[in-house]
Amino acid sequence: MASSPEWATLTDQQVVLLARGGREAAYRELIRRYERPVFALLFRMLRDRELAEDLSQETFVKALNAIDSYRPEFKFSSWIFKIANNAAIDHLRRRELDTLSLDGSPHAETPEAMQATALQIGARQESPLEAVEAKELGGAIESAIGRLRPEYRSCILLRHVEGRAYEEIAEILNLPLGTVKTYIHRARNELRLALAHLKE
Amino acid sequence: MNSASGPHLSSDDFDAWMSGAPSAEARAHLVACPECRERAEAEREIVAMISALPLMSPAEGFADRVMQRVAVPDPFFLRSIARIRQRLLATRRTAVLAATLALVVVGSMAASIVWSLGHQQTLAAMGTWLMGQASQVGWIGIRGIASNLIEQPWYSPLRDSLAHPALLGAASAFAFLLYIGGIVALRRLLTVPTRQVAHAHG
User: Fold this and answer.
1) Closest in A23, A121, A188 to B54, CB measured
2) Is A36 in contact with B51 (CB distance < 8 Å)?
3) Are the Cβ atoms of A57 and B51 closer than 8 angstroms?
4) Model confidence, pTM
5) Of the four listed, A51, B98, B99, B198, which is most buried by Cβ atoms within 10 Å?
6) Mapping DSSP to helix (H, G, I), strand (E, B) and coil, where does residue B3 land?
7) Which residues of chain B are within 8 Å of residue A57 when distances are taken between CB atoms?
8) φ/ψ of residue B74, rounded to 5
9) Largest Cα–Cα distance in chain B?
């Protein structure tokens, strides 16, 4: 193997092999590849930026410290999403998050903390009206996803935000394929009903 | 549920339609059934809205914070282990040999531990006997050497000369110089050469 590989040309499995060989750069490459999707999944599951950041960190620390136990016949993405999803579900089970706010964490006590934990949307150039509409629409969909059952939420986020196949979602969530399909269709129905008022 | 144009579309049909590959029946049904058409459009809008959700990133320095808590294995150690394993498992014969050796070493160690635990008194008695024998042999040896020395012709003059303090001092200084000289010579002999020598290559 070359001394400094072209990371973009390597598959996840090849990067994992390099990481197992003690290459720190390989660990960093795995983080670079998955920090955004893992963080986005956890944020949308938990609706708290600080908490999502903590659990993302825990997810990576757990996965990378146990890199030897990863089985290359499975997708690395499935493995890391599984760890992240389990962390989120465990947290939700411990602490019921039924009060959702787009303006920040429900646990934030000061305006600064609310701002710090608020959902940060990308800095695309928009007119003020577009920005308000986008925020309203984005806010409505984020809020509606936040009200779904955690299992539905995981499924819909993995399917339509992360673009994972039904089979991979079934593997990540340890659910039968039929159940995953049912959850996704039910979730879409619930979202359709929850967002019906926007069409009026 | 059915409509005039047959049964309504299933969830799988809607999925196929959204991915642009509906069956011919589903396509025909959609043309004829306003209810399914409306639902299909609504589903497509929902999926488009979810897919358009903004990308999100953790705060700056995330990778550094993770790496502070990750134990990266030592590459030299891993390579050494891999090399040893490769050599041991190179052929069936070496693998069998390695396994046999490991079995013999581990087996004899285990047997030794088990026997020791079961025969502690015997071991203690053997230890005492060995210590006794060793000290007896040691004393006999010392006494033999001392008797030999005393019987040597040069012993008496040497003892008389060392009885004088000035001579004793001179003898000690000589012995000390001899010791220092020996240490210096030994260090020079053991020093690793830093410069390459011409015949070292090729």
Assistant:
1) A121
2) no
3) no
4) 0.60
5) A51
6) strand
7) 58, 62, 65-66, 69
8) -70, 120
9) 136
